[in-house]
Design a protein that fits this description.
Elements lengths: L1 E5 L5 H14 L3 E4 L16 H10 L5 E4 L2 E2 L5 H15 L3 E6 L3 H4 L9 H15 L16 E3 L4 H10 L2 E2 L6 H8 L10 E10 L3 H22 L8 H10 L5 H5 L3 E3 L1 H13 L4 E6 L4 H21 L1
Parallel strand pairs: 1-2, 1-10, 2-3, 3-5, 4-5, 5-6, 6-7, 7-8, 8-9, 8-10
Length: 311
């Protein structure tokens, strides 16, 4: 099993501190979200994706650096291709391109209205792949192979993942849904990394953790299964509706799409996803002190993997 950290936005120092702790402990990768704003916390600092990725690349040596995730509606796919070529050279091959169809919360600010986002993503991925080919003379700098991880859950996004992805990056799904969706992607002849981003709350008291995590888990499940992430906007009315209607999401369903409790509890929950084919977990930490939490998770799970590897 590989392990990564979904970076919490904030000041450059806060982002770098998380990354350096993850690198020190031996995590495989860090993932920085590409947002202009986030409805549940509009006051948070969101620094521009390529600025942050460049900053992290220059201050790290080993850990892989990923967009978690960007889209081709706000960013021209040729510019994404060029940017990741440059970052790949700067990082000496440590970049991961995480990409999805986009979200209304970011598109609205840009004045973008798109009725066929999955088709656009397919076209954009084809262009990126073409520009990265060795025999394409558009770019003089060429990546050896920047892995592409596609965030998506519905049938057409799974098809895109099968066609273009080196990894799959869903969020907020249960182990059973993970297994069923993965069947639509595999088998693939190329190397493929089934991954998942899981909201994570580390606590000695699992009952208190469940109580704290449940509203967020229900919201994420509602957005995924009822609304669709592409349609999630900055509208106060929509987000109030999400808060109310998500209360109807069954408790067990919501809590099976997150990680919570002490490290032993979390280990058992990860094992449920591993049994369904997951090989790479990205922790989206909900604890206020996320640096300490990264340390707890690293000491538990990274050391465990090293022990297994030594056997």
């Amino acid at each position: 099993m590989k392990y990564g950290i979904q970076l919490r936005p904030g000041s450059f120092k806060e982002i770098l501190d998380q990354t350096l702790m993850a690198e020190k402990l031996g995590f495989d990768d860090v993932w920085y979200p590409d947002h202009l704003i986030y409805p549940t916390n509009p006051q948070i600092e969101w620094h521009e994706l390529f600025v942050v990725l460049s900053y992290l690349v220059l201050h790290t040596k080993k850990i892989n650096i990923a967009s978690g995730v960007t889209d081709i509606l706000r960013r021209n796919p040729a510019i994404i291709a060029q940017g990741f070529c440059s970052l790949d050279q700067l990082s000496r091959g440590r970049m991961i391109l995480g990409i999805g169809a986009g979200e209304a919360m970011n598109l609205e600010i840009c004045g973008i209205i798109e009725k066929a986002p999955v088709t656009k993503l397919d076209e954009g991925l084809k262009l990126i792949e073409e520009l990265w080919k060795k025999d394409n003379e558009t770019f003089k700098i060429k990546p050896k192979r920047i892995p592409i991880y596609i965030a998506g859950y519905r049938k057409r996004m799974l098809k895109l993942t099968k066609d273009h992805g080196d990894g799959w990056l869903p969020v907020a799904i249960t182990p059973e849904e993970y297994s069923n969706s993965l069947r639509n992607i595999l088998p693939i002849e190329r190397s493929f990394d089934p991954t998942i981003v899981l909201s994570t709350l580390v606590s000695r008291n699992i009952e208190e953790a469940e109580k704290e995590m449940l509203p967020k888990a229900r919201r994420n499940r509602y957005i995924l299964t009822k609304l669709g992430y592409f349609n999630w906007s900055n509208s106060k009315e929509q987000n109030l509706l999400i808060n109310e209607e998500s209360k109807l999401i069954p408790k067990n369903e919501a809590l099976r799409s997150v990680l919570l409790g002490n490290p032993t509890d979390i280990d058992l929950q990860i094992e449920e996803f591993a049994k369904k084919g997951c090989k790479h977990v990205v922790f989206g930490i909900g604890n206020k002190d996320n640096i300490s939490t990264i340390k707890i998770l690293g000491e538990e799970f990274i050391k465990k993997e090293k022990r297994i590897g030594d056997i």
